[in-house]
Amino acid sequence: MAETAPPSPLARTYAPRDVESKWYAIWERSGAFHAERSDAIPPFTIVIPPPNVTGVLHMGHILNNTLQDVLVRYKRMTGFAACWIPGTDHAGIATQNVVERALGREGKTRHDLGREKFVERVWEWKRQYGGVIVQQLRTLGASCDWARERFTMDASLSAAVREVFVRLFDEGLIYRGKYIVNWCPKDHTAISDDEVTYTEQQGKLYYIRYPLVRGGFLTVATTRPETMLGDTAVAVNPSDERFAPLVGARARLPLTEREIPVIADEFVDPAFGTGMVKVTPAHDPNDYWIGQRHNLPQIDIFDVSARTNDNVPARYRSLDRAEARERVLADLRAEGLLEKTEEHPNSVGRCYRCDTVIEPRLSDQWFVRMKPLAAPALAVVRDGLVRFHPERWTKVYEHWMTGIRDWCISRQLWWGHRIPVWYCAATEGRTARCGEPIVSRSAPAACPACGSTALRQDEDVLDTWFSSWLWPFSVHDWPAETGSPAEADLRYFYPTDTLVTAPEIIFFWVARMIMAGLKFGPTFTRSADPARNIPFRDVYFTSIVRDTQGRKMSKSLGNSPEPLDLIAAYGADAVRYTILALAPVGQDVIYAREKNELGRNFANKVWNAGRFLLMNRESIGDAPGAGEFPSAHADLADRWILSRLHSTLRDAAEAIAQFEFNRLTRLLYDFLWHDYCDWYVEMLKSRLYGPESAAVKQTVLARAVDVYDAALRLLHPVMPFITEELWQALRPRAAGTTIMHQAMAKADAALIDTGVERQMAFVQGLIEAVRTIRSDMSIPPSADVTLMVTAGEAHPAPELGKYEGYLRRLARVAQVTIVPQGHRPPLAASAIVEGEELFMPLAGLIDLEKERARLAKELERVEGMLRGIRAKLSSASFTAKAPADVVAREREKLATFDATREKLERSLGQITAGGAR
What we know:
Oligomer: single chain
Radius of gyration: 37 Å
């Protein structure tokens, strides 16, 4: 048996920094987060959305990882082998950019180092700086299974990438072709359709005259006049009778020496511009397909930086896109070929990483055929095997999946998974002899076609998402050797249970993981059942964190607080609690630094309750052999708090199952702050400090500790540090034990007593009514009062007598008298609670004449304030010209003073002769 340590005394005030650093080190050192497969208990698995290795913690991470940790800690305490697998993503473009900027400060480029040395430099950077964000997650309290931490370029994950590439290539689902791709001129790489963000901006529509060879001219409308230098046709719709005679004619391309044909194609919209469009197959995806249908030449006019190249006339070479546009427009005006210009809204695509305007560019790239993979991935969502929360994202997913395009997976970078394709470079003289591509899981020794060893690997790397889409099973070292521990882990922990992620990567990542799971899951599940092969069962899409002005938080706006500063100032538990409390399902989080006071105040309240219990136990002592939740000597308050506890346990389990995390925080707050601390602890004092025997007091206190213990366990997934510290202090614990491995208290329906809860609600109503009268009438807190209550059917006299002790302790009521219905004592304040009238005689408690004068004077002042505010708000000039927040504040003041006026009138009426209500 492990040695039992006595509880540590609690400090007077809670110091989060000391507690958090102490407990996380103990948890991690003892392996408390580690999960092992077991035939005896079911698994619960979450894979972390791997943050970029370049990343640092931001508010989105705080929300996302707190949600995951709540789920994992709760499942760990409810009998599951809870496994949360952490890791980081190699983030091809982002990481390469970071290292290239560092080289730039040394006056070097990656080309100065060469590919091999540059990649070594990136690995060196990763070893030095790449673990920052995972260390920050520890500060937050993330209970990840760090023994299973993965990096998307670990050897085993790289092997998975090559395995998938080869399998898909062999099935004809990966191919290489020359297509229009989204080209980032800054990063010098292709990016997929999903990595382009579109924004509406005001542009222009230019009407350009193209002279016809046979005489006259035709006019086309375009938003990109600079690309006309790459035109190879003018197109009209075949059903447009206006231009039927022109089909087959030839036009002279302005500013060049070329002639181009006029063609007819169904794609052309007769209502756009003039109904005639220029066709640039190398720089527009729609024009590309028109060119394919009509066998048009493809003239690429830009280099990798989107500067004009040698395929344009000399006058227009080496210009960026804006410069080329201005020069082309100036020359068209000079030649009288620019007919007119109109304002025109335009959707502009930008690289989602660097915000550079993308350039559609004709390029040799590698693609995945997506339609065969998308069909089963769409079916499992429609069939409910994979559930989205909120459910509205299902429609978004369906829309994208039904119109899915092939995925461009090659990137022109050096950092990343290099494409596992080699080309035979054997030659005879100066002529390539073979040129066969070789797709292989490892570097081939020789060309299988000709035997040559002169092989050259493809220069490109794979899209970062090509490794991320395998994450739910690659983290378990798939493809693992049959019968190996890795394969056993994979079969046990896969599929994962819940994915918590941001909705903006539903296409980048979520959809592709579903495709990959269904495609490759059968290789290790040995099942064709989609339910066994899906990568997760539930997807919870997090809210967007915004500031109080509704702006998305970002470092560029300077409106995003530094999470580590928040944790240092308020404590990790307070930050966790606050972000959950502010995050309703499917709605944005409106966040401000000062809102963390909510979490800090709650932590302090829970801490002080623990100190109260321990201090009283020191003086009263333990109840020997009382057992858990002793039933002896239980009064109304005891039965009520047990009912409230079990109602809360029931509702909390339901909230977690439905991903209603902010509802969970409300339940915890209402129970611990209001029910336990504000009411039960105060009621407890009347018994602990009263005349009952020591044995009774010990039993009463033991029950209170048991309720608190159960509440701490329920709170633990949300606020892990403070609950561990308090739980350890409650009772002697065996060395190495932790709250996170204790069983979560379960709701017992037999202990939920709505009748008891109704009785207590009436008692609370009486106490609050007395407190309100005391406050309104300025009765000194030390003065004892008499209470007269009418007894009705709902609350008969014998029942009311049982409440006298609570009223004495919590409202300083010296005597409770039952009076008949309709009885109205003179000069008494009154209230109604659940249909029962109560009266508090005021004679002898206050100077009635002095109080009347004070109330009348205050009422006169408040009415004056109201007149002034109403006059201001009735002024059209004020409401029209004053800032909206100023007008809103005046309306708030009006409501506040109006409520104050009503309260003063009521109080004044209650001290008039006859005790009018």
